[in-house]
Specification:
The chain is α/β, with parallel strands linked by helices and 503 residues long. Helix content is 56%, strand content 11%.
């Protein structure tokens, strides 16, 4: 048998959309393709056969490791490359794989899995063992988010990091599709966790809850995972960062800061953590440090993109998102020079004549917008950081803001920042009923966002509507009474209202 024989090992189900691209990417690299099908009803098996794959049926038992191990049992190559259908081996990595197959079979190799995400602009790069020698003791463990590393360690294989790149398209889907995918994994992970309470499983459960926007359970399981001192640093960094962002949303700045620092201690090369830290500094009005951390995120993000820095599990950020945040911070701090730095970089990211940049130029230079182009401008404003930047620029804009904000709301959905800005504009025009309506709408959409309550409270106080103001105070006390930042502010306002009422 050729000592360089490589088997591509896969498990699939209804993957006709992705499978051809995956198998095309390994042409000339693998000598054998073993595909285990867990119940496809589309053309998956037909496509596999066209590529000369050995196709085996497997009755799904709610266990990814069982299916992967069945694929290993039917593989004959000296080396195993394993991919999912929504992955592709990078063209530049083909020769690297073939060269490694001629080396020691006591080594296993991690690859860079580059997850593309054009939907949320949150691409990520992570190291996973994807190329290893076939060995009777090497097998997968875990019903979901299965691992090969424990068995490689048990069989005394040396793990080597490589620059082999695998492109992953599985996260480049809509939020609803991603939640559905996370939900399917979650049930397997929870069953696995009942059998063996392992910190890795807890971490993956938290990740699934996070993708499903279930913050309460995500926080619960991230904390459980962090109770294990042996949890990998890469996972600790992600868990602490998530908890820091969670506390930041609740304006618990001290707690958020401590958690962000713990995240950086676990892994200092995470651009997203620096952005979270930037948000925390912004929350306490320290705009200088907020901007410095934003620039740190920009620098590390660029180095990782250029592969001059490596990290086990890094979530990269769309460069524009960092630039929007930097611009917003400069506006808050009144710093012109760094503003020009970020804006120059933003112009270099794309077409200088784009609707996005055209809108920014109008707002920066206080030029009246063309009503007919409002829709075009707002189609370009999609992300939260873009929204924040536009709202900051509008604060010094002297032309009619209402039509622009109304159009913005159409394109951003139920965005509380836009709703509050529109409500404030109605308030400035003394359209108090409309302002009240929109502030209340903001609270109904996100009842955990304190500014909306304070805006509504200010509106009632401006109208000397004491009873309604006290009702808002009561709502603030009930929802944020345990918040060390908000509670004292609410108490001070309440005392002033009561004193005024009794005078």
């Amino acid at each position: 048998m050729d000592s360089k024989l490589i088997t591509l090992s896969m498990i699939v189900k209804n993957e006709e959309k992705f499978l051809t691209g995956c198998l095309e990417s390994v042409k000339g690299v693998v000598d054998e393709i073993v595909i285990v099908d867990t119940g496809s009803t589309d053309n998956t098996k037909k496509i596999a056969a066209e590529f000369g794959a050995k196709v085996f049926d497997f009755n799904w038992v709610n266990d990814f490791s069982a299916a992967r191990n069945f694929s290993l049992q039917n593989s004959t190559g000296n080396w195993i490359l394993y991919l999912d259908a929504d992955e592709r081996l990078h063209q530049n990595s083909k020769q690297r794989i073939k060269k490694l197959a001629g080396g020691s079979r006591k080594k296993a190799y991690s690859c860079i899995v580059n997850s593309i995400d054009n939907v949320k602009n949150r691409p990520s790069k992570m190291d996973y063992i994807r190329f290893f020698p076939r060995h009777p003791g090497v097998k997968f463990e875990g019903a979901a988010h299965e691992q090969i590393i424990p068995s490689l360690i048990k069989t005394s294989h040396q793990i080597i990091r490589t620059e082999i790149e695998i492109i992953h398209l599985g996260y480049n889907i809509s939020a609803d599709e991603l939640k559905l995918k996370a939900g399917r994994n979650l049930s397997l992970l929870l069953n696995d966790y009942k059998i063996k309470k392992h910190s890795y499983s807890a971490f993956q459960i938290a990740q699934s809850y996070s993708l499903m926007s279930d913050e309460e359970n995500a926080v619960k399981y991230f904390k459980i995972a962090l109770d294990d001192a042996k949890l990998l640093s890469a996972y600790k960094a992600v868990a602490f960062r998530y908890l820091a962002a969670y506390e930041s949303q609740k304006m618990k700045w001290n707690e958020a800061f401590d958690l962000a620092q713990k995240s950086l201690l676990a892994d200092a090369m995470q651009p997203l953590t620096y952005l979270v830290l930037s948000q925390i500094y912004q929350g306490v009005k320290d705009f200088n440090n907020a901007e410095l951390n934003c620039r740190k995120a920009l620098d590390i993000n660029a180095k990782i993109a250029n592969r001059s820095l490596a990290s086990d599990m890094v979530i990269m950020i769309d460069e524009k998102s960092i630039l929007y945040r930097g611009l917003n911070l400069c506006l808050m701090n009144g710093e012109r020079e760094p503003f020009n730095f970020y804006f120059s970089k933003l112009k270099g990211c794309g077409n200088g004549d784009s609707d996005e940049l055209a809108l920014f130029n109008l707002l920066i230079n206080n030029i009246k917008y063309d009503d007919k182009k409002l829709s075009n401008y707002m189609v370009a404003i999609k992300s939260e950081t873009q929204v924040e930047l536009v709202l900051s620029l509008l604060k010094t804009y002297t032309h009619n803001k209402q039509p622009l904000l109304e159009e913005m709301l159409k394109h951003t959905g139920d965005n509380v920042l836009v709703i509050n800005a529109l409500a404030a504009e109605y308030e400035n025009k003394k359209e108090y009923n409309r302002a009240e309506e929109f502030f209340k709408k903001s609270i109904s959409i996100n009842s955990d966002f304190p500014p909306s309550y304070f805006f509504l409270l200010s509106l009632y106080l401006k109208q000397s509507n004491t009873n309604s103001a006290l009702k808002v105070v009561a709502d603030l006390e009930n929802r944020f009474g345990g918040n060390s930042v908000i509670a004292p502010q609410v108490q001070a306002i309440k005392e002033k209202i009561v004193k005024y009422f009794n005078s």
